[in-house]
Amino acid sequence: MALDDPQGGLDWSQQKLAKARAAQDVETQFWMLLGSARMATTLEDAQRSAGYLAEARRLLATWPGAGPMHRLWLGTTQALADVRLVPTVELMARVLSLRREAVPLGMPDLLCEVDSVELWALVDVGNNDDAWAAAEAIERCAAETGYLDLEVSAITQLGSLSGRVSGKVPAVGQAEDYFQRALARLDKLPARFQRSLIEFELGGALNAARLPGSARDHFLRALALSQDLGDKAGVAAGQIRAGEMMLLMGDAESALQMARSALPLMEAQGNQLRLTAAHMLVLKAMTALKRPDVAAALEPARRADAANVPPARRAELAQAMAEALALLGQHARAYAELQRANQLRGQSLEGQRDTQMLRLQARYETARRDVETTELRRQTETAQLALQAREAGQRALWTALGAACLLLVGAVVMVVRGWRHRRQLAELALRDELTGLPNRRAIRAAAQAQIEQAQRWQGPCVLALIDIDHFKQVNDVHGHATGDAVLKALAKASAHVLRSHDRFGRLGGEEFLLVIPGSALADMPAVFDRLRSAFSAVEVLGLPVPHGVRFSMGAVDVGTEGESLDQLLDRADHALYEAKAAGRDQLVVRGPVSAPA
Ligand SMILES: Nc1nc2c(ncn2[C@@H]2O[C@H](COP(=O)(O)OP(=O)(O)OP(=O)(O)O)[C@@H](O)[C@H]2O)c(=O)[nH]1
């Protein structure tokens, strides 16, 4: 029901709740209150959700039948409702303690739900890399526990995150693949609510790819679905995002209309987050239209700026207010708002840092660099603005403000361009030109890192050498171009079957290296079979279908003996040689040096 019509789901739980109350059936009352709270959270109705949760807590306190399971479900539903309302660091601490309590009780469905609290918290704070890992974990646990709504929403999130994760180049096609996968999982279910979310997230991906026109159309589609369902938060979200796209496309008048329709909806619901977004859009659109009555929009915007709204959003609102004040000629106030926006940006980055510490992820380098760059940018901006303000009076300040902003934008563009260019060059230096896979240097570095990790933590890890069989014959009979297409086909097959943390690269010629952390030799026959069938299913230009080309594989276990990469590759090479000698098209595995294979 949550997938199709959460409002309908809420009504249904309410009816059941009334009956359970009349029958004094405390257990059913408890579950119906949790169900109602969850639906209200989905509908972004924080007030109603808080009411149901408070009632559930009161019930639990006086009910002798209450056990740890009830407490944990209440804690998890509460945490889900609190995403965006309490600081992320606090929420992550709660996630950790819920997990600690749930694991010994063996509650996979609850653990999956706890993972989804973590996902939303990470998405909210903009920690995309960790959010990606969390969404992948949820897709797996939801599929295992048969939790379709969690599974589809995890896949949808993967789509919307796919352009924002480090090391992935934003590509609409890739995001669309995830959305298509989510739709395929919904199959023939009506799932109007989930479909509206998919449209909405697809709009986001198109916007990230700088296609505001297409993005607007998808936001409008999401809006129409939400209107059909009477989902007020969905309607407001669709209006705001469609409005933002209209503004980007220069249609500030329509953007203003959209924002103004969203405002009363969210005021009535007390939805602080969307309210802030609507005010921001009103201000931006009016500023773009150079309307002097923007003055009247400033005060309500300031009232909507609540402490529980994430600092990154508050920073954007402060920025919009600064621009409106500048339009009105109130330069001193504009300057103060700009400074406040900078402070809020700083807070937002601190929040991200704290969350990451809790995640115990080894991604500190990237986070630190981000913080340093932003800090540097902030200091430059503030220093320039302060200098200009002292030197000239109010009027001169405004001119200076404009100039400083232009300079800053120019500098940021240069820095970003330079950074992109360097990143492209660095990527090229690590990529194999023909297959697009990591090249020899990159795959060896990845293998080295995984070996060190496996040896340090004594975790399993497998290295496998793959060599295409009779490749020379393919070249000789069908030509070099067909040989190249075979190499590309293997790369394509690997993308279909390997997991995101497996690494596959080309060592040279027709030889490839596969690194599989977290797996043992016993898993290798299955990996070999999967790769083998995916490879034979790929069409190769110049060869019949199926192409009939095969490969051999030699795999070794990293073990704890402290063997170097070259020693491991040497053993894998021997195993590969055995596979070739035994007739090819097969796998040979070898255990650690100390243990017999
Ligand atoms: N098309 C193409 N061929 C390549 C490339 N790099 C290496 N080769 C060819 O790959 C062939 C390797 O052949 P061999 O090492 O004799 O091995 P094989 O024919 O695969 O036989 P087995 O490994 O014993 O099954 C040589 O003919 C190389 O010229 C490439 O980038 N493209």
Keywords:
binds guanosine-5'-triphosphate, mainly alpha, Serine Threonine Protein Phosphatase 5, Tetratricopeptide repeat, globular, 5-stranded mixed sheet, 5% strand, 597 residues, single chain
Strands, helices and their partners?
Elements: H1 6-22, H2 26-42, H3 46-62, H4 68-82, H5 88-105, H6 108-125, H7 128-145, H8 148-161, H9 172-186, H10 192-208, H11 212-229, H12 232-248, H13 252-269, H14 272-288, H15 294-304, H16 311-327, H17 331-359, H18 364-391, H19 394-430, H20 440-457, E1 461-468, H21 471-478, H22 480-497, E2 503-508, E3 511-517, H23 524-537, E4 551-557, H24 565-581, E5 587-590
The structure holds guanosine-5'-triphosphate.
Structure characterization notes:
With 597 residues, this protein is mainly alpha-helical. Among the domains are: 85 residues; 84 residues, Serine Threonine Protein Phosphatase 5, Tetratricopeptide repeat (Alpha Horseshoe), CATH 1.25.40.10; 56 residues; 151 residues, Alpha-Beta Plaits (2-Layer Sandwich), CATH 3.30.70. The chain is 73% helix and 5% strand. The protein has 24 helices and five strands. Strands 2-3-1-4-5 form a five-stranded mixed beta sheet, with helices on both faces. Helix 24 links the parallel strand 4 and strand 5. Helix 1 runs antiparallel to helix 2. About 2% of the residues have low confidence. The structure holds guanosine-5'-triphosphate. The site of guanosine-5'-triphosphate (GTP) has 17 residues, from strand 1, helix 21 and helix 22. Keywords: Membrane, Nucleotidyltransferase, Transferase, Transmembrane, Transmembrane helix. It catalyses: 2 GTP = 3',3'-c-di-GMP + 2 diphosphate. Pfam families: GGDEF.
